[in-house]
TrEMBL record:
InterPro entries: AKR, NAD(P)_OxRdtase_dom_sf, NADP_OxRdtase_dom. It comes from Lentinula lateritia. Residues 39-205 form the NADP-dependent oxidoreductase domain. The keyword Lipoprotein does not apply. Keywords: NADP, Oxidoreductase. This is NADP-dependent oxidoreductase domain-containing protein. Belongs to the aldo/keto reductase family. It comes from the Eukaryota.
Length: 317
């Protein structure tokens, strides 16, 4: 039986599958072709990669081996800079090299990605952030890029690119889960105003990286039990991981997760086809409110510089 990919709309109307599989973390990063093929064969239709995962070529290879057409898969890549290049300061890409760096990505992938992001505001020297965005705008105008967006952008970075922008970023990909909600409030307010879709990386952080799971974990356990009892015909067992990913979706946020484990990749694919509204509004609200009592972030280098943290405990005790 054919399954329909469950999507969100970008501001342009382009559809983006709500669950993406990334090859930038965990085992998926080490065996990107093998794991990517399992992902596509089991039904994942959204792959997230980046220049500094060194896996863009693997996406092209995976797609070629899968027998699927490019149009059946949504692919994102990112301008990351080249940390290993001693002549380049950190991750920055000089403005006059942005176009060729993007072209290099396209060459490695073998196609134009559906979405191309500035991986972090630190990829450009601060004075050059706007100009870097303008290069992406020009490439979009020239048909060299499709959708363009940003990642790890704080309020001050969003303001820079939004000021007089020809194209507003389609997405901001950030570490998003219940424990970053309080910190992200100013970012999310700007995004709501400008129709910028939020993409969550690290969506499973409360369960996988918080030392105790924190106050949200028992709430997820309770909801998983309720969902299991009231939906006996669901194709997969519903546990805390499933509930947390469904919460991300219910918040209108794309979940970019990962796995290199065959069974867990299959599970992620099954989750991506579940119907909407499995969680009640009250359950979504409970996860949100309990999450906002704590601040805990895994990928700290990205968003904590020059962006005030909320006055909250980290929930580890
Ligand atoms: N823009 C950025 O700066 C940025 C930063 C970080 C990540 N990302 C993107 O986001 C992707 C995901 O990031 P993330 O790894 O932090 O996401 P995550 O969803 O928080 O964690 C993924 C990890 O969860 C495990 N997992 C998957 N399904 C599971 C399940 N059912 N039960 C238990 N564990 C499960 C996987 O381990 P196994 O392999 O063992 O299954 C994997 O290592 C990356 O690959 C990358 O594409 C972007």
């Amino acid at each position: 039986m054919s399954r329909t990919v469950q999507t969100f709309d970008l501001a342009s109307g382009v559809k983006i599958p709500w669950l993406g599989w990334g090859n930038g973390s965990g085992q998926a990063r080490n065996v990107p072709v093998q794991a990517g093929l399992i992902a596509l064969q089991t039904g994942i239709r959204h792959i997230d990669t980046a220049q500094n995962y060194l896996n863009e070529g693997a996406v092209g290879e995976t797609l070629a081996n899968s027998g699927l057409l490019k149009d059946e898969i949504f692919v994102t890549s990112k301008l990351s800079g080249r940390k290993s290049d001693p002549s380049v300061d950190g991750y920055t890409v000089p403005v006059n090299e942005v176009r060729s760096a993007v072209q290099e990505s396209i060459k490695k992938l073998g196609f134009i990605p559906d979405l191309f992001l500035i991986h972090s505001p630190h990829v450009a020297a601060h004075a050059d952030l706007k100009k870097t965005w303008q290069v992406l705008e020009e490439m979009k105008d020239a048909g060299e890029l499709k959708e363009i967006g940003v990642s790890n952008f704080r309020p001050q970075d969003l303001e820079v690119v939004l000021d007089g922008a020809k194209y507003q970023p389609a997405v901001n990909q950030i570490e998003y889960h219940p424990y970053t909600l309080a910190h992200l409030e100013p970012v999310l307010a700007i995004q709501a105003k400008h129709g910028i879709l939020t993409e969550s990386f690290g969506p499973l952080t409360p369960l996988l990286r918080h030392p105790t799971g924190g106050p949200v974990k028992p709430v997820l356990t309770k909801i998983a039990k309720r969902v299991t009892e009231s939906n006996p015909s669901l194709p997969i067992p519903v546990d805390e991981v499933v509930v947390l990913l469904l919460w991300t979706r219910a918040m209108g946020v794309v979940a970019v997760t990962a796995s290199g484990n065959e069974e867990r990749i299959k599970l992620l694919a099954e989750i991506s086809y579940l119907p909407e509204n499995i969680l009640t509004k009250e359950e979504v609200q409970e996860i949100t409110s309990v999450g906002k009592t704590v601040h805990f972030r895994h990928y700290r280098e990205h968003m904590e510089k020059d962006f005030a943290l909320p006055d909250l405990p980290d929930g580890t005790t």
